[in-house]
Amino acid sequence: MTGKACCLSTQQTIADYIEQHCLKDDSIVLAQASMAPAVKRLPEALQHKVLTIPALCIQYLIAQLAGE
To answer: Which of 8, 18, 43, 66 has the most CB atoms around it within 10 Å of its CB?
Structure first.
C-alpha cells in the first residue's frame, strides 16, 4: 500500500469508528492533528460534533473535568 493509500485508509478507519461508536456523543475530540482529515469522510451531521482544533479540544476537556 502506498503512503497516500495508507493515509486514506487510516482516515476512513477513523471515520468508520466515529460513525459506529460515537453517534450519541455530544462532542468528539480528535486531539491528534493527524486525525483531523478523517472529519471530511464523515456525514455533515456528524462533522459539527468533532473538535480538532487544539485550543477547542483543551477547552472542552477542561470543561468536562470541571463538570460543566
So the answer is: 18
